[in-house]
Amino acid sequence: MEYAYDDQNIFAKILRGEIPNNTVFENDHALAFNDIAPQAPVHLLVIPKGAYVSLDHFARDASVDEQAGFFAAVAEVCKITGVDDGFRAIANTRTHGVQDVPHFHLHIIGGAQLGRMLPK
Ligand code: 5GP
User: Which residues are part of the catalytic machinery?
Assistant: First the structure.
């Protein structure tokens, strides 16, 4: 699998500071911000600062430090948003997964009872 990263995607522009965002948490390797079109009371995106197009790309090629930093940000986001009653983490990927933005992002969605994962 070849992963071709397009540095003109909207999250790359956010990381370069070309587009504003509502940052909730940031560390050396990851940025977490509110989704512009929230689908639940809590809806954030956690993204790595490195140029990874998808979860499988990140899992294969990111360094141990990048992966640790990313998941540390996920932990902080869960703490900050107080999703103690639960949440859903979604990584839409490529065509079948209906991924719109080709920079790996993990949706953290919660703050309310969510429906089933997929329609039956
Ligand atoms: P995907 O379908 O790629 O998993 O989801 C992309 C997400 O990015 C969508 O939920 C969409 O609302 C969000 N999004 C798209 N553009 C922007 C933006 O400029 N700022 C923020 N904060 N979120 C965005």
Answer: 105
Q: Is 18 in the pocket of ligand 1 (CB under 6 A)?
A: no
Predicted pLDDT at 80: 98
Q: What is the rounded CA–CA span in Å between residue 26 and residue 28?
A: 7
Atom of ligand 1 nearest to the CA of 91: 4
Nearest alpha-carbon partner for 42 in 111, 117, 115 = 111
For domain 10-102, give its CATH number from 3.90.1150.10, 3.30.428.10, 3.40.50.720, 3.20.20.70.
Answer: 3.30.428.10
Pocket probe mutation, ligand 1, options 14, 15, 45, 95, max atoms within 8 Å of Cβ? 45
Ligand 1 near 27 CB (within 6 A): no
According to the model, what pLDDT value does residue 3 have?
A: 96
Return the DSSP state at 102: S
CA 98 – ligand 1 centroid, Å: 12
pLDDT tens profile 32-71 = 999 999 999 999 999 999 999 999 999 999 999 999 999 9
